[in-house]
Design brief:
single chain; mainly alpha; 2 domains; 6 helices; about 0% strand; elongated
């Protein structure tokens, strides 16, 4: 893969994203830092971090949603709710295993995610928000615990 001047790699970013990635990887492997498209490379790395955090939040909201439904509608419990709890726990566990620094972020966004889960639970169940505790009733350890299913 030929070395391309920075202006060309900047242009590639706008016209052929895959080619830009391939050229950037080749430049990094050859340690050709003088020709790197630093601005777009930094943007991409920042975007990757945002996507990781967004994915964790999304999985946490779904997990909390199904834990709430499991607890507050025991007569409606289903295999799909249990399957969702298991799957989203796995996704969270995998994310934390790949990026342990996300654990602090999980703690940081727990309250916001819980509020989102309540809003979704109200929409899906028809239950009033007052049915649910004001603060998340589940600890981070319970959220991560494979065998934890709240009693209702």
């Amino acid at each position: 893969m030929a070395v391309e001047p920075q202006t060309t790699t900047q242009h590639l970013y706008e016209t052929d994203y895959l080619r830009w990635i391939e050229v950037t990887i080749a430049q990094l492997r050859r340690r050709e830092i003088e020709n790197l498209d630093w601005e777009n490379l930094c943007e991409e790395l920042e975007g990757m971090a945002r996507r990781e955090r967004r994915s964790l939040k999304s999985n946490l909201v779904v997990l909390l949603l199904h834990l709430l439904k499991w607890q507050h509608q025991p007569q409606q419990r289903s295999g799909s709710w249990k399957g969702s709890i298991v799957e989203h726990r796995r996704r969270i566990r995998d994310a934390l295993q790949d990026s342990p620094s996300l654990k602090g972020y999980l703690v940081q966004v727990l309250d916001t995610c819980y509020e989102d889960a309540i809003e979704q639970a109200c929409a899906e169940t028809g239950l009033s928000a007052e049915v649910f505790p004001d603060r998340c009733p589940y600890t981070v350890e319970q959220i991560e615990e494979r065998s934890f299913f709240p009693q209702g």
